[in-house]
């Protein structure tokens, strides 16, 4: 049997007015239910904590994706502005060439001497278009080698390095787009 002072102290802790066996049993049952409720609440809180941690991780991942996307869009904007400047320069050069061609044609004695027919004008236009296509192709080939050193092997090495860099950047872009796609799903 339990000593009397332990039973009295237990009755005081359990707030029992009647220190009988049924009162102790009822108090212990109540305490068991409260303990179960506390354990259930603890499990709910742990699940909520896991959910919040997962949400924070997802938000951090999405923030990293957004920052990388923003940096890549800034880079693309810079490249776009460079391409626009190059396009304007090419258009200006094309106008200059057209004006030069027009002045050559107007100053040419052969052009002034004969009165062209419509068929000859069409054939001349076709030949001019063919020559312009060849000229544009040659310009493209010339621009490919513009800025490269005169040493052929060194130029080839730089072209290979530029191609490798381009492929690397394309792979990075594809990975970023894939991650963005995964992030949206």
Describe the structure.
- There is one protein chain.
- This protein has 185 residues and is mainly α.
- The protein is 88% helix and 0% strand.
- It has helices at residues 4-13, 21-107, 109-113, 118-145, 152-184.
- The longest helix is centred in the middle third of the chain and has 87 residues, at 21-107.
- The two termini are 67 Å apart.
Brief characterization of the structure:
This protein has 185 residues and is an all-alpha fold. It has five helices and no strands.
- Helicity level: over 70%
**Strand tally, please?**
0
Radius of gyration, in Å, reads 42 Å
Oligomer: single chain
The average pLDDT value, as a whole number, equals: 84
String of helices and strands: HHHHH
Biggest sheet character: none
- Tally the helices: 5
Q: Which structural category do the helix and sheet elements fall into?
A: mainly alpha
**Content of β-strand:** under 5%
- What is the CA–CA distance across the termini? 67 Å
Which word captures the global form? rod-shaped
């Amino acid at each position: 049997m339990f000593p009397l002072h332990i039973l009295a102290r237990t009755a005081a802790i359990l707030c029992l007015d009647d220190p009988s066996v049924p009162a102790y049993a009822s108090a212990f049952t109540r305490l068991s239910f409260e303990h179960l409720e506390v354990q259930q609440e603890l499990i709910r809180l742990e699940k909520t904590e896991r959910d919040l941690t997962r949400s924070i991780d997802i938000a951090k991942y999405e923030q990293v994706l957004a920052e990388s996307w923003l940096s890549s869009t800034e880079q693309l904007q810079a490249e776009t502005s460079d391409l626009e400047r190059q396009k304007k320069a090419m258009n200006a050069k094309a106008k200059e060439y057209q004006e030069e061609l027009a002045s050559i044609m107007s100053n040419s004695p052969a052009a002034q001497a004969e009165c062209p027919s419509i068929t000859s004008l069409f054939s001349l236009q076709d030949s001019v278009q063919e020559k312009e296509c060849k000229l544009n192709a040659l310009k493209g080939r010339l621009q490919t080698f513009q800025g490269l050193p005169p040493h052929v092997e060194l130029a080839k090495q730089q072209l290979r390095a530029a191609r490798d860099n381009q492929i690397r950047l394309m792979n990075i872009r594809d990975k970023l787009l894939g991650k963005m796609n995964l992030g949206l799903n």
